[in-house]
Design goal:
Helices cover 26% and strands 21% of the residues. The chain contains 6 helices and 16 strands.
Length: 365
């Protein structure tokens, strides 16, 4: 965190950006380990952009966010499990928004709207054992209804929730994390991430979460005996998986090694950004992923970051220094959100594989 920044917002969450709401929903049923998270913009929508850097993305309506194109504001972003199948969750969000009369006006009637709902998916197929248990339109509706029902400035559930239900980071359980930065100017920049990475969030030499190296305070270092025990546990899991599959499977399904992944995120600010400036925020926020996940942006990742601007606070007449602070804060918030996701996740052990959480291995310190 840079010296100019004054620290986290009151909730240290995406909802520190006034008007932003978050809702989670989980796929129900035996063998299901997946879900959807919806970020709901304030009434009137938000300026939005996206930057996709992974080699295997699964997205919907991202072309609409190109600053050269027509759509100026959007009402919701969907982050979902289920790989490309799970993108159907956005249909449920679209239907709910249409019922509210929210979307791009295309006719004289107030309800003649087409909601533009950008979405990105992560690969978690088979993580609970049932390959067909994946989010659909009903999951998306449940998540957006949960967001709409939440109070302004509500706390955001983290860990094994929503789109993070079946997420995995390297060999350990991934999940949802969120963090915020309040700048001296009064501007808030915040991030929500679903960590489901082919790379690792943990330094194999020390057991320290990579993202902790950049948060402005000494990282929490597990004691060497604890780290050695964690390494033995992970080696045992790898060996057991190899015995079951007969080889190191690369399909990512039940008992596979989960190499088909994707980390997806939303970075939001209450500063009034143009669509081009929001595009820059989405891009520089990826630097936070690069600090906290190693390696990142691989061919088997679909890493994508959305940026939202609610426009509550204008930029000063000379905006470059203020915009630089916002860009730096976006990367810092995203890196911290990755750390919080790893610490909040709960381990999973079932027919889809064994994925201990960071806290299972290193305790809650």
């Amino acid at each position: 965190m840079t010296e100019e920044q004054s620290g986290a917002g009151p909730l240290d969450a995406l909802t520190d950006v006034s008007g932003i709401r978050v809702g989670h929903a989980r796929v129900r049923g035996e063998g299901a380990l997946s879900g959807t998270t919806v970020v709901l913009a304030p009434e009137g929508g938000a300026v939005a952009a996206v930057d996709v850097r992974g080699g295997g993305p699964g997205t919907r309506e991202t072309d609409a966010l190109d600053p050269r194109n027509l759509v100026q504001r959007i009402d919701a972003v969907v982050l979902t499990g289920g790989s490309a199948f799970g993108l159907d969750a956005a249909s449920g969000v679209m239907a709910w928004l249409e019922e509210q009369g929210r979307g791009v006006r295309v006719g004289p009637d107030p309800f003649q709207v087409v909601p533009v709902v950008p979405a990105a998916c992560l690969f978690d197929l088979g993580r609970g054992g049932d390959w067909g248990a994946r989010p659909d339109a009903s999951t998306g509706r449940a998540a957006v209804e949960a967001a709409a029902a939440s109070e302004p400035g509500a706390r955001v559930a983290e860990g094994t929730v929503g789109a993070g239900t079946g997420a995995v980071a390297g060999q350990i359980k991934g999940g949802v994390g969120t963090a915020s930065v309040r700048l001296p100017s009064g501007t808030t920049v915040a991030a929500l991430v679903v960590v489901n990475a082919a790379g690792s969030v943990v330094d194999p030499r020390t057991g320290v979460l990579y993202g902790e190296y950049g948060v402005g305070e000494p990282p929490v270092r597990p004691a060497p005996p604890m780290h050695e025990a964690a390494r033995r546990r992970l080696a045992e899991i790898r060996d057991a998986r190899a015995r079951i599959t007969g080889s190191e499977s690369h399909h990512g399904g039940p008992q596979g090694n989960g190499v088909l992944n994707t980390t997806i995120a939303v970075v939001a600010t209450d500063a009034a950004l143009t669509r081009t400036q929001a595009q820059k925020l989405a891009g520089t926020a990826h630097d936070g992923l690069a600090r906290a996940v190693r390696p990142v942006h691989l061919l088997t990742d679909g890493d994508a970051v959305f940026a939202l601007s609610t426009g509550r606070l204008p930029l000063p007449a000379e905006p470059v220094p203020a915009l630089n602070d916002i860009l730096a804060a976006g990367a810092d918030a995203l890196a911290r959100a990755v750390v919080k996701a790893a610490r909040a996740a709960r381990g999973a052990d079932g027919p889809g594989g064994t994925f201990p959480s960071y806290c299972d291995l290193y305790g809650a310190s």
